[in-house]
Amino acid sequence: MDFPPRCNLARDKENQVCKLRKSLYGLKQSPRAWFGRFTESMKNFGYIQSNAYHTSFFKRDGRRLTALIVYVDDIVVTGNDTGEQLKLQKYLSQEFEMKDLGDLKYFLRIEVARSITGIFLSQRKYVLDLLTETGMLGYKHVDTFIKINHKLCEDMDQEPTNKEQYQRLVGMLIYLAHRRPDIAYAVSVVSQFIHSPCVSHRNTVDRILRYLKSAPGKGLTFSKNRDLEVVGYTDADWAGSVTDRRSTSGYFTFVGGNLVT
Description:
261 residues, 6 helices, alpha+beta, 21% strand, globular
C-alpha cells in the first residue's frame, strides 16, 4: 500500500503501518461495522430493535408508532407520527450522509402506488423482466396457473431438466408470491422438486410464467380501515401428495381487511 496523500509520517522508517479507523466499501467487515454503528445510533435516539427482524426499529408513544427498516443502505420510514419522522430524518442526516428520496415508490423490486383509498403493491416490472429473461414474453398466456388435479411427483423415469436454472426460477417465483398470493399454491408445488426437477416440473413452471403474462400488474391493495381485526383462514387437502401421501396445508391472515400473510 502507498501512504495516503498529504500524510506526514516519516517515510524512511521501516515496518510502519496505517491503522484503519473507518470501514470502506469493498472490505468484508464494512457492512457489519456500518450496521453496528447504525444500530447504536438508533438505540441512542430511543428506538427499539426488533427481535424477529434485526433490521427493523420501532418507537412507540401512546397510540403513535414510528417504524424504520433498513436493507443494505436503503432505509424506509413509516408510521402515524409525522413529527417523529421529521425528527428521525434530521437526526440520521446529522449522523450519516443521507438523501431523502420522498415518498416510497420502488423498494426491493416492489412498486408502490398511493391513492385516497390506500396503498397498492405490485411487481409489474419484476414480472416483465422475468418473462423477458426466460423468453416467455412472446408466448401465449394461459388463464390458470396449474392443471386441475395435477399428478406431479418425483418420477425417476422422467427426463431431467437443468437443475440450476430450475432452482433460480423457482426462487424468483417464491419472492413474487408474497405480492401474488394467486400463484402461492402452484409455487409451493414446484418448489417441492428443486432437488431433482424433471421436464414435467419445468413445464409447470413455464405454465406459471405464461399465467403471469395474462396480468403482470396484479398485486395487493391495503385499504384504509379503522378497525385492526385479525382474521385467519386455513385449510388442507387430505393425503394429496402422490409421492408420500402427505397433506398440503395453506393459510392466510387479514388485519383490518388487508392480506398480510
